[in-house]
Specification:
This protein has 454 residues and is α/β, with parallel strands linked by helices. It is built from 15 helices and 24 strands. It is globular and about 60 Å long.
């Protein structure tokens, strides 16, 4: 597909990197010469200098023949105008990054009037990611599939789990209702086979329906009690959406914000949160608010350094859950080594949601791709496909199909039935199929197989 990305930073570069790798023709529009120079030197993309709201710039970028226009700058108004202008010129599909809660309240009307096909809200997506993490205090990451019926949970293996040095083929017998999908060991992502042995310290993904995943962690002796209260540092957009989300989860929330005007605004719009005007990095203030009595500490200021320092303080206190927001993506991998496993990024959330939307539109005749989730420092990916009639892999037992190396059929959802697949199982038309694979190896469900049948 011909895709135009209007950007002013790292989100656009990340999108261009992934989508060009998928084989799409990418044109990157940016007002920064330095950003375009970096993209032209490192990516196979066409670069156009200018504003996405300028018709001449959009014409130069080829908006008349574009399949998708993605406006992902930090300016909501610029994104909406870029989409409107590109659609008027002939672009077929428009995706806009829209962050401000004031626009979110009337988003459906705005999309209709401005001809925006899909609006992406990074702060809301980040809040939803955090709310999933609150279900399992020990989890590094939690993703959902098949409309929330299937969950994939990442956690760090500890000695007390008693699953180390046991082949996966034996663990499948012990835990038949979950699938072991992917492992990060010493910086390397691995899609494990039956003979693979888990080691203490591995970051492991396990998948199953909600009941089975919860039962698995209970068997390990892990704490599966959902957090009941949390203290949140920073009163920005993510905090607002998170408070709205937690209102229906029964979680008591305290928000600490240094800006008095923001505090007043949050107090007026949020009924279920206690808003405190103060510096969230002040340990005396946190102690006076009994930080140790809270199940979770969530650091969401706009300053990475403050989030990191406060998060490390929470880790030192031994809090059940510490979540830190990071803006600079290059720092995410090293933070886990400091003891903070759960790191979220609105920029990365934006890129992930847009990638899923684009890939969902580039389906083939044999399958539709519903979701793509980057896993394990972006070295692996989880895919959700819907199998369509006509696929050469349909109705053939999996042990008679040549599955590619580094690919795992994790789950098959058929109607109300959730199947942990074994060799005798097969894929039918209409099934939702969840795959785990090394990054960049899958575009279509048929890509999972070297040959139709052995």
């Amino acid at each position: 597909m011909n895709i135009i990305i209007v950007s002013d930073g790292q989100v656009g570069y990340t999108l261009a990197e992934y989508l060009s790798r998928d084989g799409h023709d990418i044109t990157l529009v940016d007002k920064s010469r330095r950003a375009l120079q970096k993209a032209s030197e490192t990516l196979d993309v066409l670069c156009v200098l200018g504003s996405g709201a300028n018709l001449r710039t959009l014409i130069e970028a080829g908006a008349e023949a574009a399949d998708i226009i993605i406006a992902a700058t930090t300016n909501d108004e610029l994104n909406m105008v870029s989409c409107l202008a590109a659609k008027q010129l002939g672009a077929k599909y428009a995706i806009a990054r829209v962050r401000d809660p004031e626009y979110t309240e009337s988003l459906t009307l705005l999309q209709d009037k401005l001809d925006i096909d899909q609006a992406i809200n990074p702060e809301r997506a980040t809040a939803q990611e955090i709310s999933r993490l609150m279900r399992f205090p020990f989890a590094i990451n939690v993703e959902s599939f098949a409309h929330g019926r299937v969950e994939m949970v990442e956690f760090r293996v500890e000695k007390s789990d008693r699953i180390d040095s046991v082949p996966l083929s034996h663990l499948h017998g012990r835990y038949p209702h979950v699938q072991f999908n992917a492992v990060l060991r010493e910086g390397e992502a691995i899609i494990p086979g039956g003979g693979f042995e888990i080691h203490i310290g591995d970051r492991l993904y396990v998948t199953g329906d909600r009941v089975s995943v919860t039962a698995f962690f209970k068997q390990l002796g892990r704490d599966t009690q959902r957090a009941k209260n949390a203290i949140l540092i920073g009163g920005g957009h993510v905090s607002y959406y998170l408070a709205k989300t937690m209102a229906g989860m029964g979680i008591h929330l305290k928000i600490v914000e240094v800006n008095e005007e923001k505090c007043k605004s949050l107090s007026e719009t949020l009924d279920n949160a206690v808003v405190i005007n103060g510096d969230g990095t002040d340990r005396e203030l946190l102690e006076s608010e009994n930080i140790r009595d809270h199940d979770a500490l969530i650091c969401l200021t706009d300053r990475d350094e403050e989030n990191l320092v406060t998060g490390l303080y929470g880790v030192r206190l031994g809090m059940r859950k510490v979540i830190v927001k990071i803006n600079r993506l290059e720092t995410m991998d090293i933070i886990g080594d400091m003891g903070i496993d759960s790191v979220v990024s609105p920029k990365l959330a934006t890129a992930n949601v847009i990638l899923r939307a684009v890939r969902a539109r580039s389906h083939s005749q044999s399958s539709v791709i519903e979701k793509v989730y980057p896993l394990l420092a972006n070295q692996a990916e989880a895919y959700e496909f819907v199998a369509l009639s006509g696929g050469s892999y349909l109705n053939i037992p999996l042990n008679r199909l040549s599955l590619k190396r580094g690919v795992l059929v994790s789950m098959i959802v058929r109607g109300r039935q959730i199947i942990i697949p074994f060799g005798s199982d097969h894929i039918e038309a209409g099934d939702t199929v969840i795959l785990t694979a090394l990054a960049g190896t899958m575009v279509d469900l048929k890509d999972a197989f070297d040959a139709t049948e052995r």
